Amino acid sequence: MCRALTSRGVKIAPRTFHAWSRRAPSKRALWDTTITELLAGYYEPGEDGRRRPECLYGAEKMWAHLQRHGIPVARCTVERLMRVNGWRGVVRRKKIRTTVPDPAAARAPDLVDRQFRVPAPNMLVVADFTYVRLASGAFVYVAFVVDAYAGRIVGWECSPSKHTVFVESAIRQAAALRRREGRPWDGSTIHHSDAGAQYTAVRFGETLTLSGLRAVDRVGR
């Protein structure tokens, strides 16, 4: 071992190495082992394959839990041992709100009355957008336009922000697809969406008109 360390540039005398290998564990090492065993009882599955409810705790809640049980462990110790062993609590993610109505915007009447069955394509399209969380933890918004006849997505767009321009892009893509297929919107197709600020914007209404859609069908949620 000493020769291997020396070849790596770490010079150590055999006497020093043997003294280290025979040395008793430090108080910190013993305490770490004790706390690690306690934490493993919470975060690792038992014989029945189940874990205790406290496995949902993060480092701070677990530290408080141990304190309540009379275990005088430092919070930084709990954080360090949980990090070393890959134990994590459940993170409550912030709820993302997509539909934010504009109180100053005029809402057109609902011509569909929640009836989305139509006898032919190009009679009714439904637009909305949602968000998709990425593996990195970030998320993007996804707008889509669906032809109600077959439930087919005819236009979609992704964006890191929920500005009106990205839902307009989904409409323009859908209109371009219909033109390429030889079935363009002719002004009689009803557009249905919620009452979010993006779908009640004046600019969005102009995009609907230019795309051949009837910009008269929005309902609140």
Topology (elements, then pairings):
Blueprint lengths: L1 H6 L6 H9 L4 H17 L15 H10 L6 H11 L38 E10 L5 E9 L4 E8 L4 H17 L8 E4 L4 H4 L1 H10 L1 E2 L7
Parallel strand pairs: 1-4, 4-5
Antiparallel strand pairs: 1-2, 2-3
Distance between the termini: 71 Å
Please state roughly what percent of the residues sit in beta strands, choosing from under 5%, 5-15%, 15-25%, 25-35%, 35-45% or over 45%.
5-15%
Q: Order of strands in the sheet with the most strands?
A: 3-2-1-4-5
Query: Any low-confidence stretches, pLDDT <50, length ≥5?
Result: 217-221
Compute the CA-based radius of gyration. 31 Å
Q: Assign a percent range to the helix content.
A: 25-40%
**Total count of strands:** 5
Number of helices: 8
What's the helix-strand series? Answer: HHHHHEEEHEHHE
Description:
The chain has 221 residues and is α/β, with parallel strands linked by helices. The protein contains 8 helices and 5 strands. It has helices spanning 2-7, 14-22, 27-43, 59-68, 75-85, 164-180, 197-200, 202-211, and strands at 124-133, 139-147, 152-159, 189-192, 213-214. Strands 3-2-1-4-5 form a 5-stranded mixed β-sheet. Strand 1 and strand 2 form a beta hairpin. Helix 3 packs across helix 5 and helix 4 crosses helix 5 (75-85). The longest helix is centred in the first third of the chain and has 17 residues, at 27-43. The radius of gyration is 31 Å and the shape is elongated. It starts with a helix and ends in a 7-residue tail after the last strand.
